[in-house]
Specification:
heterodimer, A: 3 strands, B: alpha+beta, 3 domains, two-stranded antiparallel ribbon, 8% strand, transmembrane (chain B), transmembrane helix (chain B), DUF1700 domain-containing protein (chain B), membrane (chain B)
Chain lengths: 109, 372
């Protein structure tokens, strides 16, 4: 990988980092467990490593934005996550902020 | 899935679990196990058969090394010293390295004036000692930084600073040393005007002084070692330096004196707006320093130099406070007695200059304490 490509990759990751939290919160309007959440994000073009996604889910849960529950499905116990009421309200505010940033950037670009 | 594949997964999860706190261990590994099994189910569907051991290993490798995976779950900081503390750590390292350099330069100077034929060996020893104590300094600062990072300690002097107090931070760049003492600093950009610096910054000076005093206290307590201060090389032979009994008698007072100075510097950093209290503290420290200097001077005998059967006494004497003595400094014989005399003159002058500066400090701080 050339120096230009490396620089682009590092800036691309930096650009994505902040938006991943928003994507995870948006995806968890519907209850999902870790594996299906990752698949849903990937299907919409947002690949995310498990080693990033799972700790992020725990952090969001400890911040009160997600609720979780262990439940059996397909003969295996899985941990399901969904937005808490606080998560719903924060997602709405963050969505407004995201649209404002997006609008500004659209005008600039 | 084969028993061997299950054993591989168990070993992986055990390695992750060992890095986690007992409270979260079971929950996190249960979730990770579920993730691994889901990934393997998908792989099995794709292949139309159960994954081999190598394919199980490949899935685990994609998930990440156990140390990296466990670290992502850790609630504390990801680094020993984070980006917020790093500039302070770097400044401490630079300032401490400069203090160490000064100590070793003085030590090397004493060694060289006492035996020029062994200059190469003395320089080598000084370098060795400088790098050894430098590594100790970096280790100590890293430990302090890691504790501050872990417990989110942010002293007031880090957050409540004033632009006019910043000039001494230029001291960590040797190119600006002359400038920080009061000269104009030429900034790097050609379009920028030179910046006028009014004098050393109180915060920067205090950090610098704390590092220096900390090194002294470490050495005084025997925790740090500067080899050049324990022995000299005289004409190829090692001359040992034996402290006089007065240093043993004054061990605790000197330690408390250094700790009191550290306390005053810390107070200055944490309470920049209390000049009167600081002035009173400085008066107390200067009075204690004068008493120590007087007691050491009165003791007369400071060190004994010994090489083979020759000995020389390093002493303090009023008669040595003589300009002619200073002019002929180093002209004497290069034997033990000659070196002891040279050191006696140097130390007597250092003590006298120190005493004068303490008297000045008492008067200057008395004025600061009473002025409206």
């Amino acid at each position: 990988m050339s120096a230009d490509d490396e620089l682009f990759e590092s800036m691309r990751l930096e650009l994505r980092r902040g938006s991943l939290v928003l994507a995870v919160l948006a995806c968890l309007r519907t209850e999902r467990y870790g594996y299906t959440l990752r698949q849903a994000l990937a299907a919409d073009g947002l690949e995310m490593e498990e080693s990033t996604l799972y700790p992020l889910l725990r952090r969001l849960e400890s911040q009160g934005l997600l609720l979780s529950e262990w439940r059996e499905e397909e003969k295996r116990k899985k941990r399901f996550y969904v937005l808490s009421p606080l998560g719903v309200s924060l997602l709405n505010r963050l969505t407004g902020e995201w649209r404002a940033i997006n609008g500004s950037l659209d005008r600039l670009l | 899935m084969t028993t061997k594949s299950e054993a591989i997964i168990d070993r992986y999860l055990e390695a992750v679990a060992a890095q986690l706190s007992p409270e979260t261990r079971d929950d996190i590994t249960a979730e990770l196990r579920e993730l691994i099994l889901s990934r393997l189910d998908a792989r099995e569907e794709e292949l139309g058969r159960a994954p081999t051991e190598a394919e199980v290993e490949a899935v685990l490798k994609e998930i990440g090394h156990p140390l990296v995976v466990a670290a992502r779950y850790r609630p504390g900081p990801d680094s020993l010293i984070g980006p917020e503390l790093f500039p302070w750590w770097l400044y401490g390292v630079k300032a401490g390295a400069l203090v160490l350099l000064a100590i070793h330069a003085i030590s090397l100077f004493i060694t060289l004036i006492s035996g020029p034929r062994d200059a190469g060996q003395a320089i080598g020893q000084a370098f060795h000692s400088f790098f050894g104590s430098g590594l100790t300094l970096i280790g100590a600062l890293t430990l302090a930084g890691a504790i501050m990072e872990h417990y989110r300690i942010r002293p007031r002097w880090m957050t409540e600073w004033r632009a006019k107090d910043l000039s001494a931070f230029g001291l960590s760049d040797p190119m600006t040393w002359g400038a920080t003492a009061g000269e104009a600093v030429k900034t790097r950009g050609p379009a920028l005007r030179p910046v006028r610096v009014s004098g050393p910054s109180p915060a920067g000076e205090s950090v610098f002084a704390l590092v220096g005093l900390g090194l002294f206290v470490g050495w005084w307590l025997g925790l740090l070692n500067f080899p050049g201060l324990q022995a000299l090389t005289l004409g190829g032979e090692t001359a040992t330096i034996t402290p006089a009994p007065i240093w043993g008698v004054l061990f605790a007072p000197i330690l408390f004196y250094a700790l009191a100075q550290m306390g005053e510097e810390l107070f200055k950093l944490t309470n920049p707006g209390a000049p009167r209290i600081r002035a009173l503290m400085r008066i107390g420290i200067a009075v204690a320093g004068l008493w120590l200097t007087w007691t050491i001077f009165q003791a007369g005998h400071w060190f004994t130099l010994s090489a083979d059967d020759e000995t020389g006494r390093v002493v303090g004497d009023w008669a040595l406070l003589n300009i002619d003595r200073m002019r002929t400094l180093g002209d004497g014989p290069r034997d033990v007695a000659g070196i002891a005399l040279t050191l006696s003159v140097v130390f007597t002058w250092v003590a006298a200059i120190g005493a004068v500066s303490m008297v000045y400090s008492i008067f200057a701080n008395a004025w600061r304490a009473v002025r409206p």
